[in-house]
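This part of the workshop introduces the protein records we will be handling. An example says more than a description, so a record of this kind follows:
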Amino acid sequence: MSFVPMLAIIAIFYFLMIRPQQKQAKMLREMRDALQKDDRVVTSGGIHGVITNLKGDVVTVRIADNVKIDVDRNSLTLDSVERDTGK
């Protein structure tokens, strides 16, 4: 009988903490795999830019006119990818 409350606590932690983190990690992995040229992104350091080239795990991001930086694909955040439609 004393295991029932412990099992309930474990179930609550799983559904409120672990499962949402796993879903977010899956979405982040899918987003990083689907990156394309001309996507607007934000790095984990807060740099906004447009993807100009993809080379494996290295992504070239244009952050200003004639200014490009190479960042690791894993440094791009989830809620920031948009298609650049006109520039």
Remarks:
- The two ends are 65 Å apart (CA to CA).
- The helical segments are 3-33.
- The chain has one domain: 3-83.
